[in-house]
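Table 4 source record.
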Amino acid sequence: MTAAEVKFATREAFLAAIQQRQDLTGADASGLDLSGARLTGARLTNANLHGVNLQKAVVANNEMQGADLSAADLSDAFVAGINFAQANLSQAQLTGAKLIGINCEGADCAGSDWQNARLRAVNVTGANFENAITTGARSAAVDWQKAKTPPAVLPTPTQMVPRWLSLVLLLGGVLLVWLWQRRQTRMEA
């Protein structure tokens, strides 16, 4: 039996297959409650994840090209290093999600909800964001002009480097100079 013929009926069975690093190309896990789960290192190409609940989940380093995540709930999820090329994210809920290093090339994100989401280094080339909701969303290193249909309201652009990091580096530099000068003064005395 191939993964394409497998319909996962329980959360436990699906997560066990992920943990065992099974090739889940074409697998069907639609409708499962995977809230709070860790989905890492999985091959879910063309998988059916329609309506799956991934609230507050960690979804990282997965191959999900062509996957069906329509009507999936990824609210407050951490999503990093995912290939969503040609994936169906229509009507998906990504409210408050944090997305880093995602490839959404050619993805269908029509009618999806990205309110208060944080997007960093997301490739949206050829993606469809028609009727997508992006109120309160922020993005860095996202070229919305490359989207097939960008959202009507573009997420607020942000810096790649958090503002506080610049201050910490500046204060660290000042501290190093002060310590070096103090050491020099002691050596001269």
